[in-house]
């Protein structure tokens, strides 16, 4: 198990006070870390959120449990009873596992342009490169090998993980986390056809990211062609996502891994986009649209709700038969129509 | 808005002379930058290509507009009338926004092998690594943290962005752009099954890239198993694309983001592959094949044209019903056939 | 063709002795490299595995051929007759093309924490960064720009390619290959909803990788939320794959490029997952499940076998008609049912 340092221990009382909920049992016990019901031991806090795992409450060797009032009587272990056990647990996990402190200052092996402005409390790791006129805010952490281009601006406490790349002019707000290998601000894919081949169109917009945004490992967000590509506050993007030029992603929208969003799509706030979903360009999703993983959104969606479009999986033999029939589906409908017509006539004696 | 330096200003006359089209109105006005009809202001050149936006021509505050003869009378603003407004605009944007100059020479914090040959006009950034016997052509720019392996060859004016990796023996022609995090020449995925597990087969081919090729951020192109993987002249690849070993991508073919091409596929010239399309291995696409985004190409396509295979999206309830029925599609066809047979017999009184 | 150094030459006899099979013809000929039947020349060994290429055996100018007894009489060239020609060839290719030796020791431009433990036979390249308390085993090679976090452990002979990133606490066994740009141990995507937006849940599990595992370029494997994400011995992952937190990938399972595996999926040993397949979270695949490229696995699969779910590709006009009909498939079934009912009544005279 990880040997990362934690911030605790805290008493169960202290955790309930800071994270929500009411203690039942001995509130003075010391909690050092969180863990699953199955694996938790002495000094560890587990939680029950999904009722499917209620059977594990009896066997757990956790020192404390977070659960709902409905399940509070399943155990005699000291516990925090909460209306939102998962949220209380999430806060406790955050309390016990603060982001690792990085030493303030510029590592002697970082390469920082003389015209960059680095807050004294920021930490710039070895082999990081900071371009001219970049501004790095208070408490930012730039991990090893990250490249921050000219005129980039980072708000306070934003973390850029190892080998991520921010092209020139990218703007990122405060309290963001950009994971390793992510690339912000590469050229959007704009090409004009000519007799001699494709002519690349200069991409002079920027990537502009709000506050409290998470961007996953190896995710790519292209700069705008003329206007900016915009990621609003509180957006959470998983790994290996592609965001095309001039896309807007509305506040608090969340996307699972491998999603692709084509250029100029306008995605509203508080949407949920499942993994590997594909969103075509120049369309609009209103607030509160949920897209099932693996679906391809080809048209605007103007009504909140859940949308799907996934071919059902089957054993290969059944799939082959159904897929072959599917290619003739249109003629099947025509044949059905003919039969219906025929049936309509048949009663005539 | 971006503060990147531009090359202008140019008079509208000068722009028309260099980029095509005829000036109507005052050709002496100075143009400093391009912008959208909606956002352009003083000193900026906008364009109308998609008739959908013709309404914006009246309101624009642009100093100049590029448009077609058909739309030339929509405005009294100084304008360039062109048979191909988008192409003229693209050229004007390129004229006004040249690639940023990089200082020639090797940064003291670059690590260049003594046996590498670097053209004196090339620029090697901090923390870039150049292996032995690599050849870097005139005017190349190697951005920070890029790793260029042994015996790699780069033609003139090719740009390798930050943290991209070119494995040993990769060949890249002139005037290419390889974006951040792209990986060329990693091992192809060749494995032989043995009782003890998978045995990796050495991948001794190379990646060979032609001239004027663009490769997007975090795109991966594997080296060949025995023969080379080949990307021909003028190919444009977007971000997060995977090209398997021994693939050939024909000249001027363009692929949107997240496409996957399996090993030994042979893709003809001037194809267009939509985002997240998937192309199976060991098959052939002739010149001029267009694949819709999200489609899976499982067989060779020997006739130019547009091909699609995408499950239509719907609200979730409708999708669930249709997907369930789809899994019985084959029996539906059989039932229809039985009815038709029956209908054939039924006329007998 | 590549100029990489090889280990040979070897006599055909020596190759048969080490790699399996029986020599027919002159076993004293010298073999320097492997190549295709089509391109092989003097000093090169080709192979015939796929009978589709048997016609090339006659024309080949290879010095030697590996083939099965069934095809042994197609040629008079010196040959190795093997029950498994592809496997014998794979071993010969490995013999002739050993992994390039890297000079042991720490490059002066590597940044190694004083508390890291580096085996004297390991090779640490320029601009590599090794964190505190990391352990790097015998014969490991850390390529330029790779970042190895605190407390990471690497078994003997493991290779980390350029600019790959291993977050703190990642464990990797011996004889693994991690390709350029891969990211192991970034935060899993765990978020709790709050009225103020998504609250990120600390991810305190690790990534634990077994022995003889290959991980492709720009592939991402997230650390566990509480328990670890586990990749067992002999697993082979291609490029641009996403493995979510707390996934288990069983021994000797192989995945082609662009696959996405959502959190907590439990994939058995010896599975084969085709390219760009998508596996939903919290489900189970037993040993020996094969998933066709492009399929979306939405439910557990508890029986070995081959499973598919891919929309068939067609020319665009046919696709449009069939896709439109598909959206009404459910009503088609209802109409068919009504006709059947009607047909059942119709025999009444």
Number of helices of chain A: 5
Strand order of the largest sheet of chain A: 8-11-14-17-20-25-28-31-34-37-39
Multimerization status: homotrimer
Rounded average pLDDT of chain A: 94
Largest interface: B-C, 76 and 78 residues
Determine the N-to-C terminus distance of chain A: 82 Å
Overall shape of chain A: it is: flat
Low-confidence stretches of chain A: none
Strand content of chain A: 25-35%
Q: Report the strand count of chain A.
A: 40
Helix-and-strand structural type of chain A: alpha/beta
Describe this structure in words.
3 copies of one chain form a homotrimer. Chain A is built from 5 helices and 40 strands. Chain A is of the alpha/beta class. In chain A, helix 1 crosses helix 3. The longest helix of chain A is centred in the last third of the chain and has 17 residues. In chain A, 59% of the residues are buried. The mean pLDDT of chain A is 94. Chains B and C meet through strand 22, strand 23, strand 38, strand 39 and helix 4 of B and strand 4, helix 3, strand 40, helix 4 and helix 5 of C. Strand 39 of chain A pairs antiparallel with strand 40 of chain B.
Short description:
With 349 residues, chain A is of the alpha/beta class. Chain A is built from 5 helices and 40 strands.
What's the layout of helices and strands?
3 copies of one chain form a homotrimer.
Chain A: E1 10-11, H1 12-19, E2 22-24, E3 30-31, E4 33-34, E5 44-47, H2 55-59, E6 64-67, E7 79-81, H3 85-96, E8 105-106, E9 111-112, E10 117-118, E11 123-124, E12 129-130, E13 135-136, E14 141-142, E15 147-148, E16 153-154, E17 159-160, E18 165-166, E19 171-172, E20 177-178, E21 183-186, E22 191-194, E23 197-200, E24 207-209, E25 214-215, E26 220-222, E27 229-231, E28 236-237, E29 242-243, E30 248-249, E31 254-255, E32 260-261, E33 266-267, E34 272-273, E35 278-279, E36 284-285, E37 289-291, E38 296-297, E39 305-308, E40 314-315, H4 316-326, H5 329-345
Parallel strand pairs in A: 4-5, 5-6, 6-7, 8-11, 9-12, 10-13, 11-14, 12-15, 13-16, 14-17, 15-18, 16-19, 17-20, 18-21, 19-24, 20-25, 21-26, 24-27, 25-28, 26-29, 27-30, 28-31, 29-32, 30-33, 31-34, 32-35, 33-36, 34-37, 35-38, 37-39
Antiparallel strand pairs in A: 1-3, 2-7, 22-23
Helix pairs in contact in A: 1-3
């Amino acid at each position: 198990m990880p040997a990362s340092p934690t911030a605790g221990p805290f008493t169960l009382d202290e955790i309930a006070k800071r994270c929500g909920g009411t203690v039942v049992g001995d509130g003075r016990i010391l909690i050092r870390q969180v863990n699953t019901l199955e694996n938790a031991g002495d000094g560890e806090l587990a939680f029950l959120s999904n009722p499917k795992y209620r059977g594990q409450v009896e066997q757990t060797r956790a020192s404390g449990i977070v659960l709902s009032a409905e399940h509070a009587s399943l155990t005699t272990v000291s516990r925090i009873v909460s209306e939102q056990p998962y949220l209380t647990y999430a806060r406790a996990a955050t309390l016990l596992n603060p982001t690792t402190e990085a030493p303030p200052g510029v590592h002697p092996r970082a390469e920082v342009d003389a015209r960059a402005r680095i807050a004294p409390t920021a930490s710039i790791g070895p082999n990081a490169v900071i371009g001219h006129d970049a501004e790095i805010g208070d408490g930012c952490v730039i991990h090893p090998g990250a490249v921050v281009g000219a005129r980039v601006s980072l708000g306070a406490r934003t973390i850029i993980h190892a080998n991520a790349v921010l092209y020139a002019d990218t703007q990122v707000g405060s309290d963001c986390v950009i994971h390793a290998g992510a690339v912000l601000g590469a050229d959007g894919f704009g090409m004009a056809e000519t007799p001699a081949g494709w002519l690349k169109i200069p991409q002079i917009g920027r990537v502009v990211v709000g506050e409290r945004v998470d961007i996953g490992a190896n995710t790519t967000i292209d700069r705008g062609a003329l206007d900016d590509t915009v990621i609003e506050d509180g957006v959470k993007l998983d790994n290996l996502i592609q965001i095309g030029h001039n896309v807007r992603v509305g506040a608090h929208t969340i996307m699972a891994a491998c999603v692709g969003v084509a250029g100029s799509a306008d995605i509203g706030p508080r949407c949920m986009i499942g993994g590997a979903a594909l969103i075509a360009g120049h369309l609009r999703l209103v607030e509160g649209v949920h897209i099932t993983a693996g679906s391809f959104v080809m048209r605007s969606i103007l009504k909140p709700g859940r949308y799907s479009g996934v071919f059902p999986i089957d054993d290969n033999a059944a799939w082959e038969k159904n897929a072959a029939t599917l290619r003739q589906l249109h003629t099947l409908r025509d044949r059905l129509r003919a039969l219906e017509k025929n049936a309509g006539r048949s009663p005539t004696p």
